[in-house]
Design goal:
The structure is a homodimer of 412-residue chains. Chain A is of the alpha/beta class and 412 residues long. Chain A has two domains: 171 residues, Aspartate Aminotransferase, domain 1, CATH 3.90.1150.10; 236 residues, Aspartate Aminotransferase, domain 2 (3-Layer(aba) Sandwich). Helix content of chain A is 41%, strand content 14%. Chain A has 13 helices and 13 strands. Chain A has a seven-stranded mixed β-sheet with strand order 4-10-9-8-7-5-6, with helices on both faces. In chain A, helix 8 links the parallel strand 7 and strand 8. In chain A, helix 11 runs parallel beside helix 13. Chain A is globular and about 60 Å long. The interface between A and B is large, with 105 and 106 residues.
């Protein structure tokens, strides 16, 4: 198999060699393929709709959407058009364009828990700003964080502790996601110093089954925040606009005080947002957060168009429907071959893990076989569907799954 | 004067009112006009070359360049063309485009102290990553920071402490920029726990005269880092590519271990970079920093083109020459009217403060008169010149300065 991939990824492997000379480790962060099974391209040359091409011209039906941002598909023409129109006028000036107000208005209309908004670039900017607002508003320090939840890569939240000092995390108290008792223990530890609780929309930690939030758990978090005058923060960076366009907890009836958005908010154009409820507006106006590019008007134009499309077309329903078909099809195929798998999380953000799969050996083989058939799955990070995915894409994917699952059933 | 501005900024003032409903305080961060004298537009509608337009159609010759990024001028056609070409292929995929390697190679060729590079979005991402790499490499915690220097808006460095907790800054030790004795005191405080020293390219703190670095001071910082096995960090976010395209300290003969770039690196397209020397490459490969949009290929295309232009045309010489003419002209005019002013810092990044000007009352009036004549100056933040500025722009600006300075001489 490696041989075959060597041939398929000739340019990619050559460029990786060169990259090592100029980039520490050849690449950084979540897009580094070093932890992925052999056969993943490091670099890409082209993307359109649901398809992505590597440097060697191999085309894949992509189920990662750039790790989330491409909710409408790559190179959405309407979004690009809106960006071009805005760029003809202004991208970055000495202040924002009028779009900043339009976008803040739009997101407050769209998202239930948004009475106001401010914008940044990274998801990490948004989650960090949520912590700062919480502390500004409450005058307290402690933040409750679920073990293993990803909230970004600033020192307080990066999953790799190298270069992080203890003071970066000394005001965090950890608990188990979806475990109300554990949350209450953390609350007690915080005592009178509880500033806030931050939670991802659902449990989408890598390398384990995803879990939708228990309603009672979210209600417990809300109750604690109400009781202790603390701030309930929804980190909707990864899931935002894929579960519910009005905010990922709307169906649970639990209202966060602050929500961090990014990823899908501008279909790949760099933008993040903090939105919040009225009672935190004053505190949000008193902190100082900023960045050289936080006011790029093109990203705001992209976001306005993206959110309009999400409103007008029922994107959530589309990706739920296709994701569900994909899930059912995979379930059927696995069943047929007697392979035990776990499909978890919302169908729009699927994750497939194999039973009894220490070291992800089955999962790795599975995605390698899929790659060889032109399907880009991830072995242990949740995947993403987009509006550009079609029923035909799902059918083609299921054909490849049939092939890969058969191999797995024979090899393990 | 306010009346006149009310008329000039009708749409702007109306939109500010609306903004207050949807954005905390009506705006956030460094682009908020609340601290500026009356008469500054909050919003902009158009920008081209050295000109910027507000919502009411008023056109200004702009000396802020979007607070730095626009080093080639707004809407540089070559940069936009490179962006468009790349976007036709790929912006954000599941990994970077090949441009990430091209750009890392280019910047290591261009910048003296760069053996490798990695890329991010915000200047703050880059400075924070420099701290993390320093701590990872040394296993130590303390960072020496000059009082009043701006390194970004993360909790460890934001100039407004609201929402910041003491642990965010408890590993920083402060000293006075350009004061070697003060640096040595800080070094002693750090003891054996010194991880690094971070310094802006020169002292460009707001609201005070700028200071170029003393060679002996930079040498002292270098010496301390060498002696204590600590990391010398150059925060070249604001000054990068305007003083010397090969790094802002090249002319001082002092080589930083890490350099943070952003702002001008992509002529307004969002990008930042950390570059470093070989001995820190391993540590840089071991930390985990990332962001959803750090691999946008369009920003890398913009940067490649921007850096090529900076290499090919002597942009530094151009903006130095014009900045110097502007400075000399202003000096002459102030002299003629007997107004005492201080022009400080490199001519490419001018700052003009008035003698005996508590509360910036003279400076504020001065920039208001300039605004009324279509010149966008800043009263207390360093300004920026770009390749798009022309000798004619300088002449027109000096005409307006003549008018404004005369007013100042009569009113104070």
């Amino acid at each position: 198999m490696n041989k075959q991939h060597d041939t398929k990824l000739k340019n990619d492997l050559l460029l990786r060699k060169k990259a090592e000379a100029f980039i520490p480790g050849g690449m950084w962060g979540h897009m580094h393929v070093k932890k992925l099974p052999y056969g993943y391209p490091q670099f890409f040359s082209k993307a359109k709709g649901s398809r992505i091409w590597d440097l060697d011209g191999n085309c894949y039906i992509d189920f990662m959407c750039g790790y989330g941002p491409n909710i409408l598909g790559y190179k959405n023409a309407d979004v690009d058009h809106a960006v071009n129109e805005q760029r003809e006028k202004l991208d970055l000036g000495n202040g924002p364009s009028a779009l900043v107000v339009d976008l803040a208005e739009k997101i407050t209309m769209l998202v239930d828990s948004a009475d106001w908004a401010l914008f940044a670039k990274n998801g990490t900017d948004a989650t960090t700003t949520c912590l700062t607002i919480s502390r500004a508003a409450t005058g307290k320090k402690k933040i409750l964080v679920a073990k293993g939840s990803y909230h970004g890569s600033a020192p307080w939240c990066t999953p790799v502790a190298t270069g992080v000092v203890e003071e970066d995390t000394s005001n965090l108290i950890f608990f188990e996601y979806n475990d109300s008792a554990s949350l209450e223990v953390a609350e007690k530890k915080a005592g009178v110093d509880l500033a806030g609780i931050i939670l991802t929309a659902f449990r989408h930690d890598v390398r384990r089954d995803q879990e939708l939030p228990k309603k009672t758990f979210l209600e417990k978090a809300r109750e604690i925040c109400d009781k202790k005058n603390a701030v309930l923060i929804l980190d909707d960076v990864r899931a935002g606009f894929r579960l519910n366009k009005r905010g990922s907890w709307v169906d649970y009836g639990v209202k966060p005080d602050l929500t961090a958005f990014s990823k899908a908010i501008g279909n790949g154009y760099p933008l993040s947002a903090v939105v919040g409820v009225d009672k935190l507006k004053q505190a949000a106006s008193e902190i100082y957060v900023t960045g050289s590019f936080w006011c790029n008007a093109t990203s705001m134009a992209a976001s306005l168009k993206t959110l309009s499309i999400i409103e007008e077309i029922d994107v959530v329903a589309h990706i739920y429907y296709l994701g569900n078909n994909l899930r059912n099809g995979i379930h059927q195929i696995a069943n047929n071959f007697g392979v035990e798998i776990f499909q978890s999380g919302p169908p729009q953000m699927p994750l497939i893990l194999f039973e009894d799969d220490k070291g992800f050996s089955k999962g790795s083989k599975f995605v390698q076989y899929l790659l060889s058939k032109g399907i880009y799955f991830h072995p242990w990070h949740n995947m993403f569907l987009s509006l550009a995915h079609t029923a035909e894409d799902v059918d083609m994917t299921l054909d490849a799954v049939e092939y890969a699952m058969k191999k797995i059933s024979l090899e393990f």
